[in-house]
Fold these 2 entries.
Entry 1:
Amino acid sequence: MGRSERLIGPMSLVWALGVAVAAVVFLSGMLNLGMAVARWTGWQAAMALFLPVSLLAGIGGWMLVLAAAWRVRRNYLRRNGTAITAVVAESELRRKHGRAIFNFDLWQVQVEAQFPHPDSGAEARVQKKFLYPQYREIKARALAERLSAGSSVPVVVRKNSALFDIPKRPIWIDIW
């Protein structure tokens, strides 16, 4: 069947670095916007609250930006990629115990699928991780069951990119 390749190219590194830099720029912009609004109002409480409010708004806004980027990429791959069916080689559901300040658990579904690459015919693999908050345990278990080892999953492939064609967005680093 040929050589086996993992569909992780240099774009994954570019994506990870780009997201980190863009997140810092986005949050800085939100802090500047919050400061400008606080100065404009002249209200003393606004000056005191601009930092936490700007940070919370920035984090929420950044999550929306990442979700929009994933939708744009998913639509692009659906339009320009090749839809195929892959076989799940490995699937794992694990509970990531709470750390740091918030102390809540996350459920992580990690899936690796293999398929013949539509362009080269070589066996290719794609791996993605999906996170669910503690209160979405049932959804995490349902996804893990749906994507259990040996099951088939729709995948959209274009060059060195592959995407599980399911509605759940993977973790930010696996969007690319």
Entry 2:
Amino acid sequence: MSGEGAPYYGNSPSPYDPAPPQAYAPDPNAVPHSRRGRGGGQRGVGADRFALTIHGLADVAAAFLGLWILLYLLEANQANVFVDFVHGVAGWLAGWSQDIFVMDAEGLRVFFNYALPALVYLAVGHGVAAWLRRL
């Protein structure tokens, strides 16, 4: 048999032995997912990174405040270096909201005076991040 027209898989005119499927070739004019809706180019990438940074900072601030509330309510050792560090960071983050709520129950006072700034940081940080992502 010669090489021309030799019966092998993919060279048969029979409908029962079809040719192998063609390899996937992406559309050269397709827009990558990361650039859809951005008007092309790399426009908006910096805003997305800045939004992610703000989003992350708001989460870290709320985590420190929540951790301090948890450590206080569980009566963690105040002389411990880690507890002192978390208390210092939480006190700095919640400095603007101290004594908004004045109550006799110390646990409730700490909870509300530190939970309020945590919620504010989350709401403002996530709101600003969502707004930046739309730019």
